[in-house]
Amino acid sequence: MENCNLSSLPNEVGNLISLETLNLGKNKLRTLPDSICNLTRLVKLNLSKCDVSHLPGEIGRLISLERLDLPQNNLLTLPDSFCNLVSLRHLNLGDYNLSHLPDRIGKLSSLLSLSLERNNVCSLPNSFSDLASLQFVHLSYCKRLQSLPKLPEWSESTYIYLPGDEVPNRFQYQYTGSKLSLVVPPLETRRILGCSLCVVFRTHEDCVRQKSTALFLHNKHTKSSLGVPITPQDQDQMILFYFPSKETALSGRIHAGDEFKFEIKLAPWSAATVATVKKCGINLIYEDNTEMHIKKKRNITDTRDSDISSPRN
């Protein structure tokens, strides 16, 4: 039913109780009938580019919904019941005037990807830190974004797109260019869970959208990679990454004073780079969930760390 010039749906759509996929993209649906909330077996719902101004108040009854695409609509807020979509894994709310997310967004415990690019959000709810399954968050072109809450305790590779051209203050020791060198600080009895990275980059002029681009983090012993979609933009972009230790050179037996040298590259698999890394920052994450900053070989600063990353345009 995509691109069928539909302006409304009949109430009888709620009788299709066995329906699992409903594609209504590129229509003129400003509202949806309340009966659509009867589709409790619905797994995928596409409402892209439909001019929808509000969702039914009982949308949370779609307990089987795993994918919801709502980009390029006219939604300003989401109903309270939205956070009852506990099976939701992929949520696309990009490219409209959404000013805030529900305070209970952290209840979406199955969520893997969240797209919020080109919205008017200034901050994310504190419950965002409960989204421990997240692997991808897209906040590009959210020009009003001022801060992030405490990030979830992730166990898998994760990345967050943000507006900005400076490494946030939480990455106290920062580097110019794509190469970094670090010395492991005293470990005491703690184990390293992984590392968090910040990468500021700019795409090349001849770059086209790359869906299979990877960020490579490598040294002479190992090479880690994380697939990321790269969109050409005429401005600097920033991505925050989390790498578990099992996916980096830090997975082996390491000691205080050990030195590691890394280089960061953004490129399609086995191809030339599509972007220039301009700046980067790194933290170690220990099993007590505290981020330990890495000593650079030189030019160590005394800048105080912040618990909140503050992207700057």
TrEMBL record:
One Pfam family named in its UniProt record: C-JID
A Gene Ontology BP annotation from the UniProt entry: response to other organism
SUPFAM superfamilies tied to this protein: L domain-like
Record's keyword terms, sorted: Leucine-rich repeat, Repeat
PROSITE patterns with a match to the protein in the record: LRR (PS51450)
Domain C-JID: 162-291
Disease resistance R13L4/SHOC-2-like LRR domain location: 2-70, 81-145
InterPro entries, sorted: C-JID, Leu-rich_rpt, Leu-rich_rpt_typical-subtyp, LRR_dom_sf, LRR_domain-containing, LRR_R13L4/SHOC2-like
The keyword Repeat appears for this protein: yes
Record GO cellular component, one term: cytoplasm
Protein's UniProt name: TMV resistance protein N
